[in-house]
Specification:
- Helices cover 19% and strands 31% of the residues.
- By secondary structure, the protein is of the alpha/beta class.
- A six-stranded antiparallel beta sheet has the order 11-10-13-8-9-12. The chain has a five-stranded mixed beta sheet with strand order 2-1-7-3-5. Strands 16-15-14-17-18 form a five-stranded parallel beta sheet, with helices on both faces.
Length: 352
């Protein structure tokens, strides 16, 4: 038995290592050729100080207060030379991956799904020789390269870690290099290369109600998170202490026109698998006959926000992200956690 330790670095690179029972994170990392910052290895200098964002661990009492104060330990800071995980953990390392002699991993996959699911969206699926080797946190992205290895674009997974086929929702950009290749040239069976995973937008521990907001192809990382929660029984694990209810998870998915709505059958299937999950879609086009019109902020009510005792995950274009931030500020709601990722019009192909 071993634990998964996800090391997230300042430059967005993530490396998942295995840690044996009674093994420190430092020793596990070194065993797998990840050179975490260290000087003394004895809990004296504090050089290996990181932050544990999620998970249970033991720090023991063999380190000096000068290396890690009581307040720092209470705030989630750890010394990796002393930290012994007692389950899966996410550890933020305050240096770029290059400082640890580590770079993004390289993968290649064979095109097994290639379908234009709407005028604005292309569904791409890649099957890897060893899916288990592609270990990422749900919500993260990779840099996908066009054949020839010169042009790359960044796309978030819409599939869960470990899935047999890694899938992506790719915005169909007129004149875009990746869009043009996928529409006009790519064929099933061809091989594409990518590097990663990257990004700090990923699913955290479920401790309170969750609101997920997706705009357009920003649905991709949200789907990856939902798939993960459905697969690992997170809703059951997140049941309230009295056992009477599940932590609610609500998705609002907004698009511009009716035709832009994609993967709704998949979302409905997730609702059948994930207790406590509800969802709604809205369309901004005033000419739409959709039941809910307007933007996600038009349908984000007080009951969903739980007075701020909520974790919000948002992925969409900058205008959407700023609109939600302004909405929350005007409402006087300060979410317990607010995780977001946005993509810019000038680099629209690099979006989720």
């Amino acid at each position: 038995m071993s634990y998964r330790i996800a090391l997230t670095f300042e430059d967005g690179v993530t490396k998942v290592i295995s840690c044996n029972p009674s093994e420190t994170v430092m020793n596990a990392a070194y065993r797998q050729k990840v050179n975490l910052p260290v000087d003394c290895s004895d809990g004296v200098c504090g050089t290996c100080k990181c932050r544990c964002e999620q998970g249970v661990y033991d720090l023991g009492d063999e380190y000096l207060d000068e290396a890690l104060t009581e307040d720092e330990a209470a705030g989630g800071l750890v010394l990796t030379c002393q930290m012994v995980p007692e389950g899966d953990c996410i550890v933020a390392v305050p240096v770029p991956s290059s400082a640890c002699k580590l770079g993004p991993a390289e993968f290649e996959g064979r095109i097994t799904t290639l379908r234009q699911v709407s005028d604005s969206t292309i569904l791409l699926g890649l099957t890897l020789p060893d899916p288990a080797a592609l270990d990422f946190l749900p919500g993260q992205y990779v840099n996908l390269g066009l054949p020839g290895g010169v042009v790359t674009r960044s796309y978030s997974f819409s599939s869960a870690p470990g899935a047999a086929e890694a899938t992506f929702l790719i915005r169909n950009v007129p004149g875009g290099a990746m869009s043009r290749y996928l529409r006009e040239t790519a064929k099933p069976g061809e091989t594409l290369r990518f590097t990663g995973p990257f990004g700090s937008f990923f699913l955290r521990e479920r401790a309170r109600p969750i609101v997920m907001l997706a705009g357009g192809t920003g649905l991709a990382p949200i789907l990856s998170m939902l798939e993960t929660m459905a697969e690992d029984g997170a809703a059951q694990d997140g049941a309230r202490k009295d056992g009477t209810d599940h932590v609610p998870i609500h998705l609002l998915y907004g698009v511009t026109t009716d035709a832009d709505l994609v993967e709704t059958a998949r979302i409905e299937a997730l609702a059948d698998r994930l207790p406590g999950f509800s969802w709604a879609t809205c369309v901004a086009d005033e000419a739409s006959s959709h039941p809910l019109k307007g933007y996600v902020t038009n349908h984000l009510d007080d009951a969903m926000l739980h007075g701020g005792a909520v974790d919000i995950y948002l992925c969409g274009p900058p205008a959407m992200v700023e609109a939600v931030r302004s909405f929350l500020r005007d409402k006087g709601v300060d979410p317990a956690n607010f995780h977001y990722e946005k993509f810019t019009p000038s680099a629209v192909e690099e979006a989720a």
